[in-house]
């Protein structure tokens, strides 16, 4: 159902079309604002607002765009374009991790891994990144189920964020949309492409990219789940801890424990 991006209340429609190209945007009865101003905005404005961490833009993408609806009730029923973006994110992560390994002089001298063939190295890091991505998605879904889902009885939030104060918690949670929220808000992982165009020292900016991705993930989840920032960061922190523990187990089980400091991270 269409949602007001300002307060999260449901609205009957986002606009009324009087004639082709002549539309009037709906005003929300709850907060009296325009229900979804992004209907008339192009992609550049939407992307800039994503960079600025505006919760309204995530409500627009997750609730009011066909690709954000997610469709049916199956666990991994996600729009094909979002799946393609997920594949791209994993491939960018492979690039970042491999670059980090190859540019680290100590790893170059000591790691047996870097003496293996290029194909083996690529497939290993690809498997590691796909595993890391899946573990994080499952961990966030588990944390959302445990801490937010009203069916578990722990969905009541006593300290909602100010911007969401007028809206209530969703009565049920669409888990495909939780995954969609995480994927679209991880766009920051693609920023290293700029390093290919301009010659920056990537190592210096890796922490900044991780920070942008983490805060974007939190903003998207808080906007979609209508949870406070405290609760959102708590469930993301738990999920990251699970992810890092599983990464450590993966490296130990495959005999590459010496790569822990370079491959394990946010
Ligand atoms: Zn509203």
TrEMBL record:
Name its GO BP terms in alphabetical order.
Answer: intracellular sterol transport; regulation of plasma membrane sterol distribution; sphingolipid metabolic process; sterol metabolic process
Q: Which residues cross the membrane?
A: 122-148, 178-198, 204-225, 232-251
Where is the protein localized? Answer: Endoplasmic reticulum membrane; Golgi apparatus membrane
Q: Which InterPro entries does this one have? A: Arv1
**What is its membrane topology?**
Multi-pass membrane protein
Alphabetically list the UniProt keywords. Endoplasmic reticulum, Golgi apparatus, Lipid metabolism, Lipid transport, Membrane, Sphingolipid metabolism, Transmembrane, Transmembrane helix, Transport
Gene Ontology CC terms, in alphabetical order: cortical endoplasmic reticulum; endoplasmic reticulum membrane; Golgi membrane
Can the keyword Transport be found in this entry's annotation? yes
Residue stretches in coiled coil: none
Per the record, the similarity remark reads: Belongs to the ARV1 family.
- PANTHER family assigned: ARV1 (PTHR14467), PROTEIN ARV1 (PTHR14467:SF0)
Q: What does this protein do?
A: Mediator of sterol homeostasis involved in sterol uptake, trafficking and distribution into membranes.
Q: What is this protein called?
A: Protein ARV
């Amino acid at each position: 159902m269409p949602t007001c991006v300002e307060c999260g209340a449901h609205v009957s429609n986002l606009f009324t079309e009087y004639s082709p190209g002549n539309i009037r945007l709906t005003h929300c009865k709850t907060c009296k604002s325009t229900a979804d101003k992004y209907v008339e905005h192009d992609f550049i404005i939407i992307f800039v607002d994503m960079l600025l961490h505006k919760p309204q833009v995530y409500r627009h993408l997750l609730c009011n765009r066909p690709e954000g609806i997610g469709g049916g009730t199956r666990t991994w029923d996600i729009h094909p374009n979002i799946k393609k973006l997920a594949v791209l994110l994993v491939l960018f992560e492979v690039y970042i991790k491999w670059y980090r390994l190859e540019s680290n002089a100590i790893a170059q001298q000591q790691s047996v891994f870097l003496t293996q063939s290029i194909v083996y190295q690529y497939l290993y890091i690809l498997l590691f990144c796909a595993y890391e991505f899946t573990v994080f998605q499952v961990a966030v879904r588990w944390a959302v189920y445990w801490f937010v889902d009203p069916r578990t009885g722990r969905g009541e939030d006593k300290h909602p964020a100010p911007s969401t104060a007028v809206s209530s918690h969703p009565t049920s949670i669409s888990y495909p949309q939780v995954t969609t929220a995480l994927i679209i808000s991880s766009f920051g992982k693609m920023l290293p492409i700029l390093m290919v165009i301009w010659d920056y020292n990537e190592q210096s900016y890796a922490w900044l990219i991780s920070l942008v991705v983490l805060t974007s993930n939190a903003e998207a989840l808080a906007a979609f789940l209508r949870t406070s920032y405290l609760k959102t960061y708590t469930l993301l922190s738990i999920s990251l801890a699970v992810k890092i523990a599983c990464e450590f187990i993966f490296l130990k089980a495959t005999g590459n424990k010496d790569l822990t400091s370079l491959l394990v991270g946010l």
